[in-house]
Write a structure and sequence with these properties.
Helix content is 13%, strand content 23%. With 426 residues, it is an alpha+beta fold. The chain has one domain. Strand 15 and strand 16 form a beta hairpin.
């Protein structure tokens, strides 16, 4: 069935959601604050109210006018007593930075040079009315999504046939209906979804999560590039157990995200990564030779159910020699949604000193020597076929490259030959 991602999302009382209810990865107040709440206001809220009062005094003393966008006062660094910075900053041109949620590109420093600073027709802020397209943040600068899109079905690329009606200005949900799986795969086109905190990534975004909404949980925070432990004593790159979807106004479990490309011919993951899938590193970090060598070695060393599959080469598209050739070929990769401690330049994105993103970063950071490939990524290879109901389906293999603590490199073939059919979401 055709999907309509532009329906207005309402809550259980049939009321429009407020922008202050939108969270991107839930970071709740501490247990100590909960004890204070029993006696009255939580300590974090009292501190923020004091900070706002001081800020207001500063505003009136200087005569400046600063946007009063809501900042989530419960967004707190879990393992520190430091409160989230709530002060708005101004750049040299007078644009207000640090506003959450932002309502123009010039309030987001990363987007200043990449987006229409006046929030023109290509920018979409407070995008909750766009439903499932409004992800993973509540605004869509549309830096890439609707510009020069004619390549999507030219040259080696194929895109429209993966969408109902051939409309890639929306998203398409896929689900394994035969095995009654609870996973959803959301394939985005040119709908503005996927922006990251570097103001890139909003074209052909890919999501995978459990379809049933759940209660939000704390997200452990890590330190970028630290491969020992995070402040809470856990290993870094801890994925957020839940994800608060800004467009759906609901929370989902096991959220992973990344990017995909469709092709007329079978293309392997390394070539697809150079086209934007990102398995060999994020924008600005591609081409690290050691990372590529290690990942290629792991992808050629494939196991399924603890048995080596010597004939399987994960660097190549597994449907290139299919007895029934696909109509087109799909290559995608998803990565855990994680959050790191950062400075207040990320206030417009998360409402706090926290950076959240699809974690295709090198395991030891971009300054790692040598860089190592992102752990916990999953690679999705599919062939597109006609389905019995007149629509389309994908037959897929799912792989996970793994680096063991003793530097053993291999790939787990998680699932082989499973079918993903067009589905509805929400």
């Amino acid at each position: 069935m055709a999907l309509n991602e532009y329906n207005t999302i309402k809550n259980s009382n049939n009321e429009e959601p407020s922008s202050s209810s939108v969270l991107f990865s839930t970071i709740l107040i501490s247990d100590q604050d909960l004890k204070y709440k029993e006696k009255g206001l939580p300590r974090s809220l009292l501190a923020v109210l004091l900070g706002v009062t001081l800020l207001c005094l500063a505003i009136f003393s200087t005569g400046s006018i600063i946007s009063t966008n809501t900042v989530h006062t419960d967004l707190k660094l879990e393992s520190s007593d430091s409160l989230v910075e709530t002060t708005a900053h101004s750049d040299t041109e007078g644009a207000v930075l640090g506003v959450f949620p932002p309502n123009s590109c010039n309030q987001v420093s990363a987007c200043n040079s990449n987006c229409d600073t006046g929030g023109g027709p290509l920018a979409h802020f407070n995008c909750q009315e766009s439903g499932a397209s409004c992800t993973p943040f509540s605004f869509m600068p549309n830096v890439q999504a609707c510009q020069n899109q004619d390549w999507l079905d030219k040259y080696q690329y194929r895109t429209k046939d993966f969408f109902h009606g051939g409309d890639y200005y929306k998203y398409q949900a896929y689900q394994d209906k035969k095995d009654k799986g609870d996973d959803l795969w959301i394939v985005h086109g040119c709908d503005g979804a996927g922006i990251q905190t570097d103001c890139l990534g909003d074209v052909l975004y890919l999501e995978n999560f459990k379809k049933d909404p759940v209660a939000p949980q704390n997200c452990p925070l890590s330190t970028y590039g630290d491969i020992t432990t995070s402040f809470d004593g856990k290993f870094v790159h801890d994925s957020c157990p839940t994800f608060d979807h800004p467009g759906m106004q609901k929370t989902y479990q096991d959220y992973n995200c990344g990017w995909w490309r469709g092709y007329k011919d079978p293309i392997g993951i390394e070539a697809a990564s150079k086209d934007g899938v990102g398995a060999y590193g994020p924008a600005g970090a591609e081409g690290a030779q050691n990372l590529a060598n290690d990942l290629n070695f792991a992808l050629k060393n494939v196991y399924q159910d603890n048995e080596r599959v010597s004939s399987y080469d994960g660097t190549q598209h597994p449907f290139q020699d299919a007895s029934s050739p696909p109509l087109q070929y799909f290559v995608g990769a998803v990565y855990p949604w994680i959050c790191n401690y950062e400075d207040d330049s990320y206030l417009p994105w998360t409402g706090g000193q926290v950076n959240c993103y699809c974690d295709n970063e090198p395991w030891n950071g971009r300054n790692g020597n040598p860089m190592t490939f992102a752990v916990n990524m999953r690679i999705l290879y599919c062939g597109l076929y006609d389905s019995d109901d007149g629509g389309k389906k994908m037959v897929c293999d799912l792989l996970e490259p793994i680096r063991k603590t003793d530097n053993g490199l291999y790939t787990e073939l998680i699932a082989k030959g499973f079918e993903l059919e067009w589905a509805s979401f929400p």
